[in-house]
Amino acid sequence: MSNSEKKTDVILIGAGIMSATLGTMLKELVPEWNIKVFEKLAGAGEESSNEWNNAGTGHAALCELNYTSEKPDGSVDISKAININEQFQVSMQFWSYLVNRQLIHNPQDFIMSLPHMSMVQGEENITFLKKRFEAMSNNPLFEGMEFSKDPEKLMEWIPLIMQGRPANEAIAATKIDSGTDVNFGALTRMLFDHLKTKNVDMNYKHSVDGIKRTDDGSWEVKVKNVDSGAVEKHTAKFVFIGGGGGSLHLLQKTGIPESKHIGGFPVSGIFMVCNNPEVVEKHHAKVYGKAAVGAPPMSVPHLDTRFIDNKKSLLFGPFAGFSPKFLKTGSMLDLITSVKPNNVLTMLAAGAKEMSLTKYLIQQVMLSKEQRMKELREFIPNAKIDEWDFVVAGQRVQVIKDTEAGGKGTLQFGTEVVTAEDGSVAALLGASPGASTAVHVMFEVIKKCFPQHMTEWEPKLKEMVPSYGLSLMDNPELLREVHASTAKVLGLSEDLPESSSSVEIEVEEV
Hints:
By secondary structure, this protein is α+β, with helices and mostly antiparallel strands. It has helices spanning about 15-30, 80-100, 125-135, 150-155, 160, 185-195, 245-255, 275-280, 335, 345-355, 355-365, 370-380, 440-450, 455-465, 475-490, and strands at about 5-15, 35-40, 70, 75, 110-115, 115-120, 145-150, 170-175, 180, 200-205, 205-215, 220-225, 230-240, 260-275, 285-290, 300-310, 310-320, 390, 395-405, 405-410, 415-420, 425-430. The longest helix has 22 residues, at about 80-100. The radius of gyration is 22 Å and the shape is globular. The chain starts with 6 loop residues before the first strand and ends in a 21-residue tail after the last helix.
């Protein structure tokens, strides 16, 4: 391959949902640009985006209690829930655009309607849930949400959870029918299949081992063929690092100032999977509980109906764990080699601050199967040990950085994009809500990295996402239209409340 053949416009590192989304957008905006993708595994969507490595909950903040918090005055702050819900609505619009244009097909293979519920126990938690419900159900984004602490109503909603409970147990739940289960692995593979038809150069089993600036300001990427060991160098004007937990090491290799004073803390997860089809059939919802003290948000316990390969499954978890690897297929040296002179103090400060998290993770790692069953029985009192197996979920690397609010070594629970000042390289770090908000996150990458094109691209961006640049919460009429059209195109239930301003939908990462 000559040097001229190794030059391209865009290099995407990692064949997950983020690269798939960005590549698809860029091909719609500038079809003539050449794009190369490098992935060290044998196929697309095999790491964090894989359907067994994340929870598939549409993160629309319908059921996740960690997106709402109680303020000192006793009221509930739902601003984060509003942001995440709006971001998920952006994903829904983009997916609908792709289906309408026949760029992807059979949306039922990656998205299904599924009620989203929050469930709490104890009077104090019930009071909080009621206040949260009142704050959210008054907002057009969350219209259609119901609250109940009536055992008969709860038996109707969640029979598997209610059977075998003491009659006087204090328990309450909220339910919203417009939630979704999303198979991000299937969606990722669909998007890359589409990109192949657009002459995107897909390179599987190719590991990116280095990245550096060239004299003309481009980026040179050193790529190794996993099978043959052959090394090639490719250059591009723009590089996106979307390698999940593997992104941090590559970001550090760029040497950009923005890569300094950032660290990563890996958290692993385990789900329990029900192997009895009769039990699986008794539950039809994603039910989120309350996180234990010290637990990271990705470890909020939930009992999930999942649709994987069009088969209904039932998962409970995740139980958090610790492994020094940054990817399931990573190295035991990942954590130690990510510590550099410029981030060592940041990392040490985080270690000192996050003792409760460290203690929690150690406790989780030490749990026996019987102890995990005890946690499951908080959700399913009659759960039998021989009806549940374990599956290891994906690795997540939480970002550690110095912030004004949190000081040195603050652990960030969320998705972060780090961009060079000139916009020539961007890296995606972090965890939940990740995949569900991929479209919004990639819009941000495009805005930061290609500001000179935004004016000419705006009409196309609005075609892809009709609410682009607008707040759906402030435009209930548009929200109603968006909700009805995305539900129709994606084959989701449209049983909206009579006076509906709208209901919604969601998706997630573990």
